[in-house]
Write a structure and sequence with these properties.
The structure is a single chain. The chain is an alpha+beta fold and 391 residues long. The chain has a domain of 75 residues. It is 65% helix and 15% strand. Strand 6 and strand 7 form a beta hairpin. The mean pLDDT is 85.
């Protein structure tokens, strides 16, 4: 009995580790190339990105890898009639199934943790590396194309001499309105960790709302905010750690209650005074939009924890379905077994997951509806295993 357990678990773990290593390296490479092309990163920045890209690659690689491992191992065993031989000895197929299912449970908990790490530490790390490398990225783009653009500013230059930008033309987007600065020469300096870029100007002309001037001999240092959220708590639920979400959800609920109470009080006062026109004013419409936005944020916060747990436990669901399908299909080819198992999962699991996630984020259904896809796979997997054990 123990020999069978060790054999099946050993074969599954070997297939899992080899496939996971290959698939993770491939996904990290794709992620690094994607960021490099999108952001214009150099080799040094790509190397800095790799640790932050690893958790993100793993959350996609682990569920697919466990499915491939169980489908290849059990498909090969079933194709070689080892399951039939096991039954002929009076042993239930559960003897070789429970070790892998237990391994999948442990793997699911690990995947939840990896998911949490990727969404919080990984995403923030990638953003920090890109912002801190903005100086090098900008100089690289300006040398190659004489122009560089971000959502916060754009710059066009005549030429680049070392670190000096000759004939620089900056366009900035600020709260007061668009700002245009022309300078004989300029330099860019990033401030790591601050989310800001310092521009040093010489011989400049500035054109801003309510401000126009020429300063041919006066130098100027100006800070451009690239990432306004740098140094602040991330307000996006997708980038929060699980431990942070409950407290932030309570704060969001309090904000919602305050907005609703203010709107109720205003509506009551307008009705009492007969000032119905104010209920359709721009101020009331702005309050309604703010309420809708804050409510959507609240629903996202409620949905995020069950979503991460459901994503993590997809490992167990995939193993449950993959093992039963592989045994029943009796195909010893690893790739064929995998695609025979993955095809139905692709048609059932992901559409249900997308439906539950979309409806939960909009507040139309309970946040735990994101488990619908997992529940469907569990029901299907248990039915398959029942058929395997009985027949």
């Amino acid at each position: 009995m123990r020999l069978l357990t060790r054999y099946v678990l050993g074969e599954t773990c070997k297939a899992f580790l080899v496939t996971l290593t290959s698939l993770t390296l491939l996904m990290i490479l794709i992620g690094a190339v994607k960021e490099a092309l999108a952001q214009g990163l150099g080799l040094a920045q790509i190397v800095q990105l790799l640790p932050y890209l690893l958790p993100n690659a793993l959350i996609f690689a682990v569920p697919g890898t466990i499915l491939f491992s169980v489908s290849s191992v059990y498909g090969r065993m079933s194709g070689a009639n080892e399951i039939v031989a096991l039954k002929s000895l009076g042993l239930s197929p559960m003897v070789i199934l429970w070790p892998v299912l237990l391994f999948s449970v442990l793997l699911s908990f690990a995947t939840v943790w990896i998911n949490d790490l990727a969404m919080s530490w990984g995403s923030r790390g990638v953003q920090r590396v890109v912002v801190d490398a903005l100086e090098d990225i900008a100089y690289g783009m300006l040398r190659a194309h004489h122009s560089f653009r971000t959502p916060a500013f754009s710059v066009i230059v005549q030429k680049v001499e070392g670190r000096r930008l000759i004939g620089a033309h900056f366009s900035l987007q600020e709260a007061s309105g668009p700002v245009t600065i022309r300078a004989k020469s300029a330099e860019l300096h990033s401030n790591p960790g601050s989310g800001k870029l310092t521009v040093r100007l010489e011989g400049y002309t500035i054109d801003a709302p309510g401000n126009h001037g020429e300063f041919p001999d006066q130098p100027l240092e100006r800070e451009i905010v690239i990432n306004p959220e740098a140094g602040r708590p991330d307000t996006s639920p997708a980038h929060m750690a699980l431990r942070e979400i409950p407290a932030r959800t309570r704060q969001q609920k309090e904000t919602l209650d305050q907005i609703e109470q203010r709107m109720i009080a205003q509506a009551g006062f307008r009705m009492m005074t007969g000032d119905f026109a104010r209920l359709s004013s721009n101020t009331w419409a702005e309050d309604a939009r703010q309420l809708q936005s804050e409510r959507y944020q609240f629903y996202r916060m409620q949905t995020e924890p069950p979503r991460r747990w459901a994503n993590g436990f997809s490992c167990l669901c995939f193993a449950l379905v993959g093992s039963g399908m592989a045994i029943r299909m009796k195909n010893s080819d690893a790739l064929t077994s995998f695609f025979l198992c993955f095809g139905p999962i692709l048609l059932v699991y992901y559409p249900l997951l997308a439906f539950g996630l979309d409806r939960a984020k909009s507040g139309n259904i309970n946040p735990y509806a994101v488990w619908l896809a997992n529940a469907a796979l569990v029901v299907w997997g248990l039915w398959l295993l029942r058929r395997v054990i009985r027949y």
